[in-house]
Structures are given as structure tokens and as C-alpha cells.
Amino acid sequence: MRAIFHADRKWGIGKGNSLMFSLPKDMRFFRETTSGKVVVMGSNTLRSFPGGKPLPNRVNIVLSPVDLSENVITVHNLEELFAEVRKYPPEDVFVIGGASVYRTLLPYCSEALVTKVDADGGADVFVPDLDADKRFLLTAESQPTEDNGYTIRFCTYRNQATQRGIF
Fold first, then answer.
1. Angle, alpha carbons 121-127-131 (nearest 5°)
2. How large is the greatest C-alpha to C-alpha distance in the chain, in angstroms?
3. Secondary structure (DSSP) of 50-64
4. Which domains, from first to last, does the chain contain?
5. Does residue 166 or residue 59 have the better pLDDT?
6. Which helix or strand (DSSP H or E) is residue 31 part of?
7. What's the pLDDT tens digit per position in 83-122?
8. CA distances to 35, 66, 87, 95, 132 from 80, in Å
9. I need a labelling partner for 147 at 20 to 30 A (CA). Which of 20, 116, 128, 141 fits?
């Protein structure tokens, strides 16, 4: 299982249940990376999509205390979630938000694919700072590139705890 998100300088990921930046290159990377795969999210993330509808061409798993649309797989707790994601290759499962789902599932993710945005987006939700987390090691980083007026870098963090079989 891997996480994928973009974060501003302060590791903010959203504002008002929405993305802080319009980043076409980042969105293309997200689509290409997750298309045909499995995405795991909370119910607020699902509601933030256009029309509150699941992402097309993906298996959508939603961690929620209540049952949701028949177009998603609803799981109610971590036990149900882990039973469901075991049905798929681990590299095909992506955690896509929101903040509480990232905080809960990052320890179980082998990697985090982070688009770092060199800006302060005025976020009201944050993920843990992976640069300060001793479990995570930055293993790849692209050259800075411009995306809709922002400087971004595509970064890969490897969770060393999962590599050693701790989780």
C-alpha cells in the first residue's frame, strides 16, 4: 500500500475540504499513477469529488462508519480495510486522503508519493512531516518544475519500518 498526495511547505494538504492548488501536472501524475488501481479514502474525500462520485477506472474503497453508495466498497474499520486490500497487489493500492486517513494509514504504507509545492497554501488540514519522521526516507526527488505558477517537485519516501517487516 502506498500513499499519494501533494503538500505545501508546511505539509498542508487541503483547505475547506478541497485542494489548495490547481496543478495540472500533479493531477496528470495522480491520474496516470492510480488509473486502473485501488484508491482508499475517507468519506469526506469522496464527498469532495465532483458530484460526490467515486473516481472512474479505479476500485474505490471508503473507510466510513456508515454504508455509502453502491459504487464504492465501504469498510467500517481497519480490520475490514486490511481484509479488503489484501485482495489486491500491495503496489496497486493507494491511500488518497483525507488527513485523518493519512495519519492512520501512513505507518502501513511502504511508500509515499508526494508532490511538494513550494508555497504556503493556507491549509486547514495537514499530514505528518515525512522529512522529520525517522521511519520515512526520501529516496527520489525530481528536479523542480513549474506547474500553473507554482514550483513543484515529485518526491518518493520509503517507509523503512515496513521494509523491515515491522508492520
1. 95
2. 43
3. GGGPPPTTSEEEEE-
4. 2-163 (3.40.430.10)
5. 59
6. helix 24-34
7. 999 999 999 999 999 999 999 999 999 999 999 999 999 9
8. 23, 13, 12, 15, 30
9. 128
